[in-house]
Structures are given as C-alpha cells and as structure tokens.
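Researcher: Quick test of sequence recovery. Tokens follow.
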C-alpha cells in the first residue's frame, strides 16, 4: 500500500513538474538555432497562425523558411497555432530572393507559400510579413493507428473487459510508444508528442474532483449523510413511497453540488439497510436513487463529470448550467416520481412496519451525527466553496481552485483536531483510479483529435445536419444519449467536445444550446444501462456485494424507458426554449 501511495504522489508531482517545466513551457513558436548576425543586413520577421480546415489552430506544425531553395529557419507552432520565424539577409538581397514558407504536420497535407519582398512592411532594416496558413487533413497511418487503438480501448472500457483506468492507460501509452519508435523512423506514424499529451490533460477537471473527494471524505466521518437518511424516514412517517421521494430529492440535490458517484457511495449502504428493515427489495429503492443522482447531477457544473468537462472546455460558469438546466432537471424529477410510483408502487405498498415510532427510534440511535463540531466546520467550508462555485465567473477563477481550497482547509482542520487519519483519507476517500483514468483519457482524446478522427466525425455530423440547428441539436442529443447508455459517458463526452465546439461556431443561432444538448444527452443517457454512468456501476456493485444482483438486461428493462422519457422532455425543452 505504501508503494502505491508514494507512486501516486510521484506520478502527480512529475505531471505538474512537466507542465511547468521550461522545456514544456518553451515548446512552440520560435526555436531555430542562433545564427551569426550580418552587419548592416536586413532582418526578416515572418509570423502567422497555422489553421486546419475548421479554422482551429494546429500545434506542433513544422514551419520551414527557404530562401532560393535553401532552408534558413525552422520553427514549430505553439499550442495556439502561432509561429514566428526570424532570419537575416544581405542588404537589398530580399528584393531579389525567392522566399518560401513550407508548413506541414503529420496527418495534414503540406503547403508552400511564396513571399515577395515587395509585400513586406519595412521599418529601418526590419522587414515584417504575416501569413496565416490553412492545412487540409490527410488521413494517413497516424490517423488509422490512433483510431484503431482508441476504438479498442473504448471497447475494453465499455464492456468492462479491462478496468477502465488500465484500458485508458494502455491506449495512451501505445499511441506514445508508436509515435516515438515507428514515428521516429517515418513521421507519417507520429501520432502525438509527449509535450502535447501532457498539455491535453485538463487539470481543472482532475483537481476539482480531487478537492470534492477530500471534502466529502471528511464530512463522511461526521455521520451527516446517514443522519439525513434517518430524517427522511422520520419526515415520511413510515410511508415508504414518500420516504423514497424524499430520498430521491435529497440524492438529486446532493448530486447537484457533490459528485454523484460519491453521493451514491455514501447513500447506497444506508438505503440497503432501510430496505431490509422495511422488508422490500433494496433494488427497488436503489434504482430510483441512482436515476435521481444522474438527473440531479445534470443541473450544475460540478454535478456530473461530463458537465465538468463541458464547462471547462467551453468556458461555461456554474450559474450558466443552473440557469439553463436546473428547471428542466426539476421537470425530469417530477417525471421520475411518477415513473417510480407506476413501476414500484405495489412493492412499496406491501412494505409494513409494525411500530413506526419504534423503528424511527432505532434509526435515530443507529444513524446519528457522530462529530457535531467537525460537521460545523465542514458545512461552513462547504458553504463557502459552493459560494465560490456560484460566483467563480466574477472572480475569473477556475472551480478547481475553490474545491482544492475547501479540501485543504477542511483537511487541515480535521488533522489538527485529530478527527481524521490523513493516510486513511488519502488512500480510501480519494479515488485515485478515477483521477488517473481522466488523465490517460485526456491523452487519448488529445491524440485522436490531433490525428484527425474528431474532425472526420465533425464533418460527418455537419454534413448530415446541413448546417440546420434543429437537426444538429437533435443529432447531438440523441446520439449522445444512445452512446452514453452503452458506453461510459465520460470518454464519449471527451470525444464530442471539439465537435460540438465547431458546430456551435458554424451554425447560426446555436450559441450554447448545442452544449446543453451534449450535457443532457451524456448525463440523461447514462441512466439507460448499468454501465452508462459511473454512479450506476458503483451502486449496483455495492448491491451485488450485499447479495442483491441485477443483470444488464434487468437493469435496462426499467432504466432505458425512463431514459427515453427524459430525452424526449429534454428534446422538446431545447427546441422550444433554446436556452443560452
């Protein structure tokens, strides 16, 4: 365990070091070897941006400057696609020379432009020219290899043939190894560089999840979540269906402000014990709760991993999500309450408790607040973190900063008061495999994006939608829902991010609505099957360990119809109101 612990710390330390290292920070524009100055000569400055056919910047493109067929400068574009080349010629030679700009990159068709000396702006002995260059895609070996590796990793994840963290790690490493072995011999096989792989990791997502895991890990030691379950039963006064409704609402609200996986981890055991006490099948309570978790998590930026990824990529704030999606999620919760009554109502009605008051007393003793002082600190810190979430757009602060701040403060308080064991919390409450999965997944998606797979899919969707908003919105919503039902919605969302960004930019009137279509499809679609969302897998895994197993088909028979209902509601909502 110690080896694992120190290995994980080392991994993150090295990652952060690489991101901030001079080698990584300096990667990009410029970079040719220093050349001897020509006294009295002219200095030519050539700059611009290398773009793809979607007008997106291309990083790590090679830009060579040739004068009369001889290479005089070689630079590599930065992550924003910019390049700056600088070289000298003898005084007056620029007017007679043939200057060419050659731009190329693996998976793109190279382009050569000729620059005339008369086209340059001049100030003293400094000449300037700006040339933006557009490169068309070329689907070569790097494209096909990265696509095959990505699909194979996707299959391993979707059908649980290999743990998703290991599958993502394997896929990312295979792409990098191919790039640095075969790709070194033949550049057509170079998929991505190590620097671009590190740059593709969205640390805002990783740190946000880490911070929230720490906060919830500390709060768990206070017994507050179990106490809430007891209060729900007390308020329901022994009425099982009312109890389930209260628990669904509590789960949805909790999942909106906490990670829904964490919420279900804390509530599943309690729900099972209450179900056993009432004499009903725990699955009849767990299924509505996990549906509620996925719906509630859709309402905010931090409620579900796909939303975190969308918000980080598109620059959407916490309040943007609340304004656009919260009311819709409330409507879907009403639909869930009705659906639950129709499907499991008879089972709830059959549950009987001989003495409701005695049972409430039993729950009161069993599920009580164990540390009021730590709970007070925890709620105060959590309240301040939520305030920063709500206002982070004003502060221009990433939500991960707020989460890490809350986690650091609460962890400090817990350790100083000797309420929490640091090592135990780090090992058990921070889900390292999940965080590592995100890191390797970002690398994989960055690689296939660089090699052109996402551009091909985007062109296909754009062609199919013919630039029509209604068709594009419908395609994104329903494709996201169906795909997310059968594969983990996290990798699918990561795949769709640049595609939706492109469609939002080129389709008139789309603005943020297509982002909401992706969020609703990915999050609501996760309710479709047992592997559609991480919360489903976690909840059903705990239930199975307690002897209550449900098959893939058994889960789908109930879950898929509800998923279809919510997608229909979301579809109508998006087309009628077009939330921005």
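Model:
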């Amino acid at each position: 365990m110690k080896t694992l612990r120190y290995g994980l710390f080392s991994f993150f330390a090295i990652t952060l070091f690489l991101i901030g290292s001079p080698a990584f920070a300096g990667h990009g524009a410029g970079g040719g070897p220093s050349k001897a100055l020509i006294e009295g000569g002219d200095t030519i400055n050539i700059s611009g941006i290398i773009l793809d056919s979607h007008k997106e910047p291309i990083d790590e493109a090679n830009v060579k400057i040739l004068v009369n067929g001889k290479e005089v400068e070689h630079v590599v574009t930065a992550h924003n696609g910019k390049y700056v080349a600088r070289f000298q010629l003898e005084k007056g030679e620029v007017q007679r020379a043939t200057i060419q700009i050659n731009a190329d990159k693996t998976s793109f068709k190279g382009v050569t432009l000729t620059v005339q000396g008369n086209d340059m702006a001049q100030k003293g002995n400094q000449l300037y020219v700006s040339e933006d260059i557009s490169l068309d895609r070329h689907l070569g070996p790097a494209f096909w290899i990265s696509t095959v590796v990505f699909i194979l990793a996707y299959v391993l994840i979707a059908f649980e043939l290999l743990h998703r963290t290991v599958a993502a790690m394997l896929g990312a490493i295979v792409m990098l190894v191919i790039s640095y072995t075969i790709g070194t011999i033949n550049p057509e096989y170079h998929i991505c560089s190590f620097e671009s792989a590190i740059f593709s990791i969205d640390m805002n997502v990783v740190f946000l999840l880490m911070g929230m895991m720490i906060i919830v890990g500390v709060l768990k030691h206070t017994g507050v979540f179990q106490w809430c379950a007891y209060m729900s039963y007390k308020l329901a006064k022994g009425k099982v269906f009312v109890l389930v409704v209260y628990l669904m609402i509590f789960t949805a609200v909790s999942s909106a402000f906490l990670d829904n996986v964490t919420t279900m981890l804390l509530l599943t055991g309690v729900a099972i014990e209450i179900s056993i006490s009432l004499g009903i099948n725990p699955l009849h309570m767990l299924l509505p709760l996990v549906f509620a978790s996925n719906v509630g998590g859709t309402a905010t930026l931090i409620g579900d991993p796909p939303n975190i990824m969308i918000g980080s990529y598109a620059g959407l704030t916490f309040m943007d999500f609340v304004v656009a999606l919260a009311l819709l999620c409330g409507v879907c919760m009403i639909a869930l309450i009705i659906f639950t009554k129709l499907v499991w109502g008879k089972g709830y009605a059959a549950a009987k408790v001989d003495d409701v008051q005695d049972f409430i007393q039993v729950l009161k003793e069993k599920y009580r607040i164990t540390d009021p002082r730590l709970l007070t600190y925890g709620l105060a810190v959590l309240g301040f973190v939520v305030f920063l979430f709500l206002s982070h757009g004003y502060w221009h602060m990433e939500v991960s900063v707020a989460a890490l701040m809350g986690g650091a403060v609460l962890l400090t308080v817990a350790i100083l008061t000797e309420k929490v064991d640091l090592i135990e919390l780090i090992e058990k409450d921070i889900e390292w495999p999940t965080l590592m999965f995100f890191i390797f997944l970002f690398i994989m998606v960055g690689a296939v994006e660089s090699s052109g797979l996402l551009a091909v899919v985007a062109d296909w969707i754009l062609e199919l939608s013919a630039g029509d908003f209604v068709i594009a919105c419908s395609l994104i919503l329903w494709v996201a829902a169906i795909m997310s039902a059968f594969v983990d919605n996290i990798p699918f969302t990561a795949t769709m991010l640049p595609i939706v960004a492109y469609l939002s930019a080129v389709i008139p009137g789309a603005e943020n609505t297509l982002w909401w279509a992706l969020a609703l499809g990915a999050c609501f679609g996760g309710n479709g099957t047992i592997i559609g969302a991480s919360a489903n897998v976690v909840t059903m895994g705990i239930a199975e360990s307690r002897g209550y197993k449900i098959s893939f088909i058994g889960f789908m028979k109930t879950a898929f119809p509800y998923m279809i209902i919510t997608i229909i509601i979301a579809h109508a909502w998006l087309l009628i109101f077009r939330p921005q």
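DSSP finds 24 helices and nine strands in the chain.
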